[in-house]
Every structure is written in C-alpha cells, then in structure tokens.
C-alpha cells in the first residue's frame, strides 16, 4: 500500500499552509511522516530548491500533471529540477481538472511547458517518454513489473501508429509520438489481454461506458445540490 495526495499545487495552498502551520506544504508533509519511498505526490508545482532536495533525499515520487496545471493556471512544475535531483517523476492527469488527458498529449504538454519556462534543452522527447513509462512505474513502486518491455515484466503494452500522414515527415518516431498530433492507438494490451485493437475498445462497448459515465456524473451533481 502506498501513500498519495496532492501537494504544492497552487500558490493559495502554499500561503494557507504557511499561515496555519508555519511551514511549506513539503515541510508539513515531512512533519507528518509523509515523505518516503512509499509516497508520491500529484502536481508538486511550487517546490523550493530545499523542498526538492527533501523530496529527492527521501525517494518520494511526483506525478507531473501539465494539462491540469495549465488548465487551472496553477503554475509550471519544476520538472527538470526534480529529474536532475533524482526524484521519480511520472505523468498523470484526470477529467476532474483536464477535459483532455491522453498520455501522448501529456508527454507533449510536459515538454512544451518545461521549455517555455527553462529553454529549449529543458526536457527532451525521450525524457518525456521515460516519465510516461518507467517514471510512472517508479512512482507506483512497480518498476520491476511495468514501464519497459523486458522479459519477466507484465505485458502491458501500448502501440501507437506514427507512420501515417502527419508523421511521415518526422524521422524520429519518439519525436513524432511526443511532438506530433495525438497518434491513433493501434493496439493496447493489459496483462497480455487485448483491450484495444485498431483503435476500438474490445472489453466494453463505448456506448455503455459513456452511459455509465453520464450516470456517475449525474449522481455527483445531485449529491452536491442536496448538501
């Protein structure tokens, strides 16, 4: 079992934490024992050099959520500094704060945001791919099972097509995946079982999944209105 929460996402959080506890979010997490190899934080946008050092020294992970941070105007995560310090950094996002949260899109957003803040060499396409795969597996404590194609690991495999129109002029397939338009998902396996084939979901119908999503959304709205 691992520990997870959001941390240092907004300036408001930083200010409130200083006012109530006299320390930063990272400092407060350390006081509570919430730093360690079994912990990973979402966002981690507003971290000082000292806080990055604390997170790195304890092996704490971070889930970089570039689309959410941009969507909410929360700031730009210091991803290059986190990686340089040795922090396990993965990519994450969700529909609660980002209407579009495909993994390929998050890789692109991560590179663009890092470069907009720190210059053209701040983050490479391959480093973004590493965050999306092995970086995320490290955050979850599952790098021995997931994150790379190796004998003995689980057959969780995504195959994107980067050989069609719009990609054919990009020589490097990793650059095509990260910087090009979102590629079509040719095949997705989870534990060796096919979940998506030629872009079509095989385990459940798209219509039933959409209907279930609408029902869940309606229940949340009704609950909030009845409070």
From TrEMBL:
Q: Which domain of life is it from?
A: Bacteria
Q: Does the keyword Hydrolase apply?
A: yes
Q: Which SUPFAM superfamilies does the annotation name?
A: Composite domain of metallo-dependent hydrolases, Metallo-dependent hydrolases
Alphabetized GO MF terms: hydrolase activity, acting on carbon-nitrogen (but not peptide) bonds
Q: Which UniProt keywords apply?
A: Hydrolase
Amidohydrolase-related domain ranges (all copies) = 1-162
Coiled-coil annotated spans:
none
Record-linked InterPro entries = Amidohydro-rel, Metal-dep_hydrolase_composite, Metal_Hydrolase, MTA/SAH_deaminase
Matches recorded under PANTHER family: AMIDOHYDROLASE-RELATED DOMAIN-CONTAINING PROTEIN, AMINOHYDROLASE SSNA-RELATED
Q: What is this protein called?
A: Cytosine/adenosine deaminase-related metal-dependent hydrolase
């Amino acid at each position: 079992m691992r520990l997870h929460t959001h941390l240092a996402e907004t300036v408001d959080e930083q200010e409130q934490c200083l006012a109530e506890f006299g320390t930063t979010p990272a400092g407060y997490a350390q006081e509570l024992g919430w730093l360690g190899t079994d912990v990973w934080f979402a966002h981690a946008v507003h971290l000082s050099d000292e806080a990055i050092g604390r997170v790195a020294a304890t092996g704490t992970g971070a889930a970089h959520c570039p689309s959410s941070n941009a969507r909410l105007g929360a700031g730009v995560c210091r991803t290059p500094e986190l990686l340089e310090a040795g922090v396990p950094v993965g990519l994450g996002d969700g529909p609660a704060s980002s209407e579009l949260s495909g993994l390929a899109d998050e890789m692109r957003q991560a590179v663009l945001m890092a470069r907009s803040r720190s210059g053209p060499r701040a983050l490479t396409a391959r480093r973004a791919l590493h965050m999306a795969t092995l970086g995320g597996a490290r955050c979850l404590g599952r790098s021995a099972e997931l994150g790379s194609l190796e004998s003995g690991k689980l057959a969780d495999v995504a195959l994107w097509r980067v050989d069609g129109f719009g990609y054919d002029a990009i020589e490097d397939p990793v650059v095509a995946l990260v910087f090009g338009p979102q590629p079509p998902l040719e095949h997705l396996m989870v534990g060796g079982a096919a979940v998506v084939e030629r872009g079509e979901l095989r385990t459940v119908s798209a219509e039933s999944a959409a209907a279930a999503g609408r029902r869940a959304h309606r229940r949340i709205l009704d609950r909030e209105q009845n409070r």
